[in-house]
Structure formats: C-alpha cells, structure tokens
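Hi everyone,

Forwarding the result from last night's run.
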Amino acid sequence: MKYNLLKPLLVLITLIGALLPASANTYDFAVDGLYYMKHGTDAILVAHPDDLYAGDVVVPCTVTHNDTLYTVTAIAPYAFSCCRELTSVTIPSTVTDIACNAFESCTSLESVTLSSAVTAINDNTFSYCHSLSSIEIPNSVTFIGSYAFVECKSLTSIELPSSVTEISDKAFMYCTGLTSVTIGENVKEVGNVAFSECDNIKDVYCLATTVPLMKFSDTFSVYETATLHVPAAALNDYKTTAYWSSFNKIVADEAVEGDLNGDGVLDLNDLTELINIILDGDGTDMTGDINGDGVVDLNDLTELINMMLNE
C-alpha cells in the first residue's frame, strides 16, 4: 500500500507547506544536513526548515534515525526550491518520486544525476534552473510535466529515452541554449509550446515510427530553420501530418541504400538522379557508385534497377 499512498502524501506535504508559516519545521528528523519526513520505513527528503541546501548534494539510499533504518524513496515538493547556491545533486536508485517544483529556481544548479527508478519529471521540477547544462533522463521516465525544464537556458541538447510517452505543454519552453532535441520512439503526444522560443534548435530527431500527436502549430518555433530527422519508413507520414509538416526540411534519419536524393525512399526519382549524375558528372561525384567499383557508369544504373525490383 505504500506505493498507493506516497503520491497523495507528497500532495499533502505541498498543502502543509503552503499553510504553515515559513519558520515552521515540517520534518521529522535530520541526518547529515538533510531533512526528512517519515512514511512507515520510508523517508521523504523535504526542505531545510531554516536555511537552503547548497553545494554538491548526494542524497543517500538509506538513513538511520533512533536505530531505525529508513529508505529514501521520494523528494518532496519544493524540497530544493530556490536553493540558489546548489550546484549539483545526485539522486539514488531508491528514489521513485520527485515531486513538482522540487528544484525550481535553483539558478546555480549545473548537473543532476537522476535515479534510474524515477518514472516522471513532474511539473516545474527543474524550471528556471538557468545553469543546468547536464542531465541524463533515465529509461524509466514515461512522462515530462508542464514547465518541467522551462528556461533551462544552459541545456544544449536533450535526449528523451524510448520510455517517454508524453511531453506536456511548455515542458522545454525558453530553453534558448538547445541546439539538438531527440524524441524517443514511443512518444505519443507533444504538448502545446513544448519547445517554443527555443530558437537555436538546429536538429530535431523524432524516432517514433507512428507520428506523435501535435495539436498546436506553436509546439516548435524553428520550422523554417531546423531539420527534422525521422525514420525512413515514416518520412511521408511526417510530411503530411500536422504540424510536423510545418518543418521546411524533413529528412530520413536512416540511410536507405540507393536513396540518392535523400528522401528516404528508393524509387524512380533516384533512378533519374543517377542518370543525371552519369550525364552531367565529371567522374568525381561518387555518390552514384552503387556497385562500389569506383566508377559511376551504366553498371550502377543496372544495379540500382535491380535493387528497386527487389524492394
């Protein structure tokens, strides 16, 4: 029953924090400078009652208090919020829940090592962490919440693993340092303005063969400048599905042998391309060397036709 009760308890902690005065101590015990609330034999890491966490914080797997061993399983809402001198945090594999706003506005936080058991990056978890430049999202995470990484301006790339199925509204909005985004193969929906105002994105890699739902045109703001890389088998689907089709440049991310024009499909257009290379080339363009003999000639044309017939 602990799993069923843990999330409601985290919500309750949020409400208590909102109702009590700032000086109130909403914790049960402290070990090595970290504060906890008890939940059976589990410990939930909560905010420091009198001060802010700072420096490099390593959350332990277990803590002992009054001869009782507790397993650290969750980080409470706002536990590290506004800890502006926090620079890094390591979260152990025992932690399964990181509540909303847990690291909001930790403006000096540069790196985070997440638990391999966390299943969600909840709303506002890392919002306004302006210095965050390194975070690896584990393959246990299925959900990216609203505003989860909003204004994380130092992130240059983000890779969402195959476990992620939903990216919520505004999840990465104003991440102005992003240049590359990888969306895992099982994402079903990308929320409104999820990557809006990320104007430096150059490449979006969407690995899903079933085109994810994108309800609004302003999910991205780089349709004219970024390249969308998609699986070759789904290239036409992306080109004809709103609002993915808004990208000016959509390419197949998997090389298709003989695909000379780079559209992800082996067809008559590639045959035409090869004929043009043979007729117009000076012998230096080896892209048409289909059979690998070092010469672009009619033998390559025959090889390409055979490849098309065997498709």
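Residues 18-25 have pLDDT under 50 and may be disordered.

Cheers,
N.
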